[in-house]
Amino acid sequence: MTAVNAAAEELGVAPGLPLADARALHPALAVAEADPAGDAAALQRLAQWCQRYSPWTTPHGVDAILLDITGCAHLRGGEAKLARALVERLRRQGIAARAAIADTAGAAWAMARCGAVESAVVPPGEAWRALASLPIAALRLDPLQASELERLGLRRVGDLYTLPRAALAARFGSGLAERLDQALGAAAEPLSPLPPKPARWVRRRFAEPVGTPEALALAIRRLLERLCRALGEEGLGARRLVLSCYRTDGAVAPATVGTARPTRDLRHLFRLFAERLGTIDAGLGIEDMVLAAMAVESLAPAQLRLARTASLRPAAASAGIVARQVARAVPAAQGSDCDAADPAALAALVDRLAGRLGQPSIGRLEPRESHVPERAQRLVPVFPPPQGAWRLDLPRPVRLLPRPEPIEAVARVPDDPPVRFFWRRLLHRVRRAEGPERLGGEWWRGEEATQTRDYYRVEDEAGRRFWLYRDGLFQAQRTPRWYLHGIFA
Predict the structure, then answer these.
(1) Which residues contact 202 (CB under 8 A, 6 or more apart)?
(2) Global pTM value
């Protein structure tokens, strides 16, 4: 048995009891298969739901959630009212819960598990007094360790206060002393919260719950207007949008759309969400909606439409002949004045088809070097992401020399950046240095795997910045040489 309800617990059934023994206590016992993965996912969703009380929440164990409510309690009328409101709201959703607020996560966990009241608040600095009368298991100990302590007569947390820590660590290991220090605030216990919501999001709350498709569509359009306006101010376009609809019963109904190219076209995005309206389960009503741009890219302002007589460059040629023919047919059938060579029009078509057929069903054929028919082509996205060996997220100099130029450099120790170097008969004294960034040899080009370069970004006393690298590693038979490869602005 992994878990039991209150009725089974009254009959003597407890977690860890074999099913045969539980059946012997109550033959008509109702059982169900345990679903640890489903329980973990449900606890994750509940932790996200708790973010309405604090932005720092995280699941703890298999049946607990930790919240850091520092600076948040006054928004709910104080700590006591926050704890009672949280427990009451969970009860209305059919979830039995206990809550405790204390200076430390360990003390809060102990009071929630073993305290006398359903929602407890420990005054600041009073954790040691509140924990003294609790059972030793309140320190989140291993069951075998807790039973060993109880066998020795240490049944309460307060029994450990007067014992020397060295003796405790020698007999029971450092885990017992660490748990006690965490509960009393003598040892730090960092909280790893759930990832924060993206900054590019908009929210709409309703005075009364809504659930009709018309009301949902109107709310989505209003959210898109605000989000597209904000993205336009930043010069960004959305690639993936997530709509989270918070229902009155505590559940969250999500809807996600993706785009082939970055866009902030309101009409196009609203059309994509209109395809998802049928998948949103409003339940008894939706009281809160959040629209977030989970993936964005740069999108410069561009002219969206030209006259039919204008000459357009076929920018969508890379999308394939079949895609261009379909793109020509669809705008004509819809009476649109968009030219089929417009990549934005083609991207809108791809997004609509992907919404109906699924993203893996839409693509274009790319030729490959092979005489075998099944290997001569492959299916790739219509608009593949930009690729290249030059990574834009790495610091690179504005001017890259045609070929690295050798320099004479002096370093304090072999693996340190240089403190001065000679380049083109001039001495440069290094004031600041960053690095190294190690690049290995490209074995597919026949280079040795041990052929490495350690790049440094250095600044001399005159404020000039250079890109240097040390070729190779220090070895007994070979001393590496230094080169200058680029100059920063």
Answers:
(1) 223, 226, 227, 230, 290, 291
(2) 0.47
